[in-house]
Structures are given as structure tokens and as C-alpha cells.
Amino acid sequence: MTAPADPTTARPQTPPAGPTKSGTAGSAGGIDWALRRYRVVAYVVGVVLITLMLVGMPLKYLADTPEVVRVVGPAHGILYVVYLLVTFDLANKAKLGLRRMLLVMLAGTVPFVSFVAERWVHRTVRAGR
Fold first, then answer.
1. Residue 84 CB burial class (10 angstroms; 0-12, 13-18, ≥19)
2. 122 with 40: CB under 8 angstroms?
3. Among 51, 56, 48, which residue's Cα sits nearest to residue 82?
4. pLDDT, tens digit, for every residue of 63-84?
5. Count of CB atoms situated within 10 Å of the CB of 103
């Protein structure tokens, strides 16, 4: 028979290794991470689209200077694909539904609307719909 452990010398137990709450897909932490990613990407896509439309397009057609469109256009295309993936991930984790998800995805194609959609999605997800 072993002697009981002395409480003054006992080592504190550490939690078992494995996925943390914030890393699991179904937890609130998973939704928080997906929402954070979505917000960052929505802002970046919005700024790039506004730059393309308000700076690049006028320079291309009014000043015959297409360099901004050559650089920012493909960047917006790549970022928009990332926006679609991040939006899909968030919509699945937050259970937004197909119609809401599609509307939010389309928001990345109209200047300034991605900012409005981002605020709406943030409020909706935080309120639990």
C-alpha cells in the first residue's frame, strides 16, 4: 500500500494535450476565429475593390494609364476567391443559411457593400442570429 501524497509537495495536474476549445470547429471559439478571418478579408477586399474602381478605372480610361488596373485587378480576383472561401467557412460554422451566405458572397463585388455586409454579419453572428 502506498502512502497518501503530501498536499504541500503535490504537483498541479496539467490538462491533457489535444485540441483546445478555440480550435474546435463546432465551438464558439471556432466561430470566433472564422468571424475574425472573415472581417479581415472583407475589409481588404473592400479596400482593394474601391481602389480598383475609384483610382484604377479612372486612370485607365481618363488618363490612359492602365498600370493600376493591371496590378490591382488580378489582386482583387485572387482576394475575392479567398473572400468566398472564408465566407463559406463562416456561414457553415455560424449556420447562416444558403441565401444569407450567397448575399454576403455577392457583397464583395460591389464597392462599399462589403463593409455593410461585414457589419451585418458581425452583428448577426454575435447575436446568435
1. middle
2. no
3. 48
4. 999 999 999 999 999 999 999 9
5. 15
- Cell 452583428, residue? 123
DSSP 22: G
Kindly list the domain boundaries of the chain, sorted by start residue.
36-127
Calpha distance 65→43 (Å, rounded): 26
Q: Using 50, 70 and 90 to split pLDDT, how confident is the model at 17?
A: very low
DSSP code at position 12: P
DSSP 108: G
Q: Which residue, chain included where needed, has cell 476567391?
A: 81
CA dihedral 26, 32, 37, 39 (to 10 degrees): 130
Q: Is 8 exposed, middle or buried, given 0-12, 13-18 or 19+ CB atoms closer than 10 A?
A: exposed
Compute the distance between CA of residue 9 and CA of residue 104 in angstroms, rounded to an integer.
57
SS3 6: coil
Residue with cell 447562416: 96
